[in-house]
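Collaborator request log, item 7. Partner lab (contact: R.S.) asked for a structural prediction of Glycosyl transferase to inform their binding assays.
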Amino acid sequence: MWQDKAGLMKTLFLIPFYNHPEKIRALCEALARYDLHILIVDDGSNEASKKALRNLSEFGVEILTRAQNGGKGAALKDGFRHALQNGYTHAFQIDADFQHDISEVAEFLELSKRYPNDLIMADPIYGEDAPKSRFYGRKITNFWVKINTLNFDIKDAMCGFRIYPLKELESATLQSSSNRMEFDMEILVNAIRSGVEIKWIALKVRYEAGGVSHFKMLKDNALISLMHARYFFTLVPFLLGKAFKGQKYAWWQKGERSNEFFLRVSLFLTRNLPIFLIKPIVIIVVCFYYLFSKVERENIREFLLNVEKFSGKKPATGVFSNFYDFGIAICDKFRIWQNGVLESELELSKFNSIKDEFEASKRGRIVLTSHLGNVEICKALSLRSPNFRMIILVYSKGSENFYKILEQISKGQIKLISVEKLDATAMMQLKEAVEDGVNIGIMGDRTPLNGDKFIMLSFLGKEAKFNYGPYLLAGILGVKVSALWCIKKGDKFDIELSDIADEIKLSRDRKASVLPYVQSYVRQLEEKACKNPSQWFNFFDFWR
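Returned to partner:
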């Protein structure tokens, strides 16, 4: 019996079977070498198929017989129940048609051993023999599963080669009401919604001429479509449930949680929909986020009130505008990354002037950005200028997935380094980088964390903490400091590069030596925030 070394896992092969006598013996013979119990659930097969099953005794196969055909989902549910009752922790589903590459079984088992609470799924690789109708049908199904789970890492929702962690999926199984072919997709949706993680392994799939398939094109596609529709209309209650069950988050988790949510939705929309369809969908997503993000609404309301008191002028926009503009900014983010921003959308004279300045600089500099406007314009610079390179220092605690997505999209031109990892080795690397002309981007308005060096300064009439670490870094590296601003005005990106310091000389009192430069940045941030209040995307309490 295959078990993990601690003896905590007990896995069996689970084969849902209905009138597949031709391949079942070869399949069991191939599986027997793995020394796992084989459970076949006979879903009301005909007599010829039952005879084929009776001839498998040499492989120690257990047959669980259903009196009548109920569908693949019904067979799997019976198999799960039987496995749990007999002390099994995992069920390795393998379809009876023997289309899958059994040589990958060991790799699946090994991954399941490393991640015993995760659902191990196949990412199928199809050959030229795959029917086009099946291929495109899977693409449509994968699209809807991504929508209904808001998980855009789905590789394939239909492949019947997967390892189920049975205890972790008890809730998902109970919620899955379908009993036929659509069960494979439905349990995946419910698994993801219930928080089960997915791991993927590439798997070759073959289609043989004359192979038996019990997939009924009209009936099963109709059932699958109904299942997708049902889960689409439960998406809102699912999101509301998550909102009301939300845990208490620290500010960095709260901010990046919202960023990652928008990021994943927007990445999917930007890659799969034409531009004219994106905005209406963003409005829908923003509305839900706005309605159920009370703390974020209050933080933006406080910001707008401070703008009004400080400037003596009531902002023309309300709280919702900040949420809406943030959604649009996320969509713009991906257009920028994918080089989808047209030159007509840029203030070209300013953009080219800034690009020329960076290209003319032999050494890198510190580039301060902010949560105001769309700082992704840095990436637009990198895409349009082969010589423009940048390292972005980020706070990644609790937001690793967010930055992983960004790194994947940047294609190497932008490198992300966590501020938690700025040890002596990292500082040497930064020194070498700026000498080689690489710029260092840092958020100048990031709320300081415990242990950060900060200065209390008036911002919009109220005292706020500003981290002065970036200015110390500039002094240590001996580089210039600039602030890069990008405000969306109508359909154009208005870009500005302003000087903060040509050089920062650090005295014994380091805080005092950087104070004028921090003040210069804060005054610029203040001025631009008053002029463009709806593009303030600091959704956490800035004055905490």
